[in-house]
Request: fold
Amino acid sequence: MTDQICVGAIAGAFGVQGEVRLKSFTADPQAIADYAPLQTEDGGQSFEVQITRSIPQGFAARLSGVRSKEEADALKGTRLFAPRDRLPTLEEDEYYHADLIGLGVFDTGGVQLGTVKAVLNHGASDILEVQVPGSSASVLVPFTLAVVPTVDLTAGRIVADPPEGLFDA
Reply:
């Protein structure tokens, strides 16, 4: 498990006064400002965050030290991280996406199906992108209790009962 969790990303400038378009990845999107200061992935920059208003697909926000449109545009694509200890404690059967990436995925008989490459969410629920061993192919697995009955972070493994044919070549 990593000590830093990605809580948002900068989508570019908003206006000409140095505000940024901020996408929040937190359960309560507006709570992203509560976890500040937020850092870049390499830890090279740190920002206090002030949300100024809601906009389509996120927020307009002011970041400390960002004063111009050019500075805001230069940060486009930057992912923002918060220390794990600043984030809320999760309930049972809740996981940070960062903790799932890289875990081995096994079927109920113990056969390895692959490794979690990414956790996606396109609205309805989370989906695990599982990289198939020895192949460039990946399979999308619904991250539901019926399909993924066991997540064991300590052992670094997920047990899945995928629909028949999902992993057939």
In short: Residues 97-160 form a domain with the SH3 type barrels. fold (CATH 2.30.30.240). The longest strand covers residues 4-14. The two ends are 32 Å apart (CA to CA). The mean pLDDT is 90.
